[in-house]
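User: Please run a holo structure prediction.
Assistant: Happy to. Please share the sequence and the ligand.
User: Here you go; the ligand is fe (ii) ion.
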Amino acid sequence: MRDLYDIHCHILPGVDDGAKDMDMALSMIEKEIDAGVETIILTPHFRKEMFEPDMEDIWSAYDTLVDETRNRNIRLYLGCEFHANMEMVETLDRDLRPTLADSRYVLTEFSSSSTRAFIKERADALLTAGYYPIIAHIERYRALRKDFDFIADLIEMGCEMQVNADAVIGRNGLGAQRFCKKLMQEDMLHYVASDAHNLRGRASHMGECCEYLKKHMGRLYTSRIMRDNPSKIVETLR
Ligand SMILES: [Fe+2]
């Protein structure tokens, strides 16, 4: 399948625990292109006291990567994987960290032990400020993993749900895979993304995920999750 989107990955080199250098980033992009990905939103971590890369370094790495890939069939946008904190609305309002591809969508990460109350409160704060939270790799959070009613509440509020390709295809264990399957059957999933960090242990498996989805959920569903839904992000400007 062509024209796929990857809206969550750590391919931008030298700014977090993802790609170490430009060579690795370019090899990761080649793997994405082989899988049919034609649009990537680069989402370096932003997490206080852990990952606070300088925005100037991010923009400079982004410009170089765009330049290095100008002859390849790939569109690159900048975003951020924003680990939820109490100042996140202000941080976004002041443009201190980017939304996804300059849209109103914010890839929002929580800790695996974040409480339902915290997740709901932070999602509400973003929505009230006019941002659309996309909750990153929801298969990881205890508060969501066993509580489909809570996921339904968040969707009702206006949140969207992302799982990692690795979880869908079973590379993160049977429990995570079963969770993803149920999420899809209940029609509570909006995006899959690679969350790729490197070329080995945490490589992009978007191609394998696309094959899996086509086989288990059908072609129409696959194009909705891997192409149509994410295409809306890059088409909605702030
Ligand atoms: Fe990530």
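Residues 8, 10, 81, 195 surround fe (ii) ion (CB under 6 Å).
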